[in-house]
Request: fold
Amino acid sequence: MTFCVYPVTPEFAAEIGDLDLSKPIADDDFQRLSDLFDRYSVLVFPDQRLDQDQHLDFARRFGPLETTIGKLRKDAPIRLHEQIADVSNLSHNGGIWGETSRLRLYQLGNRLWHTDSSFKRVPARASLLYAHSIAPVGGHTEFADMRAAWDALPEEMKRRLDGRVAEHAIMYSRAKLGFSNFSKEEIENLPPVPQAMVRTHAGSKRRSLYIASHVGKVYGMPDDEATALLEELTAHATQRQFVYTHRWRVNDLVLWDNRCTMHRGTEFDDLRWKRDVRRATVSDEIPSCEREGIAVPASIAAE
Ligand code: OGA
Ligand code: MN
Reply:
């Protein structure tokens, strides 16, 4: 075994040393990484030198990759490979985005707690974010442990959530920021989707809360009650004891498990510093309700 593991927390985040991701990973090493990824939701690989293809090749070991929804935005061409989500503050020509640019208003949604692609019918399993350049101050990424958050919920709340379904849409999270300027392609391709609110994590069999700022409704619940519930759960799950804050160094690659975490980017002076971070995203296999064996009610009002 060639690499070493430095836990940052006992159950949530760890750093991996002496592993060069630009080279093919031997099967036994990859198996060891997968086992670690069942236990730790966030794995940090410092000091990597990856071109786009090497980044994608490593990501592909975890499963099929998503195509970025950036392709649906018709205001500007995409800057990177279509399987890389451009999470930077740069416009397509590589300069810092404009204060009122659509791209900026859209991307500021990443500062809300979320899990990637929960607005897709089959959501993301894992994300691999790689830092080409970072801001000297701010611009961290915070991760919340949704398995630990679930474990810590009162039994009564667990009963209330068990088997429940929430409706996620990118339009819901963007609406929270006052953004509604979606293209026809986005509206047609990103309709609201149902997701289980509680999931069983395949690798650990631990249960996990599954929510995000993308949630707009909860099946069988009036909107004001659903909004209050989501606020309460988000506040619970993002308490300090459940959160690891990643302070980036250039060339860090961070792998996280979207099935059992939420994350958000923290503030930085995005009109001053270039922060070029790029994400490969691994798709899950089936919708979360199907995995949980929950029959999705035909409509929000039903149940
Ligand atoms: C992401 C994301 C936050 C950040 O890459 O999915 O939400 O800190 N990033 O850039
Ligand atoms: Mn994200």
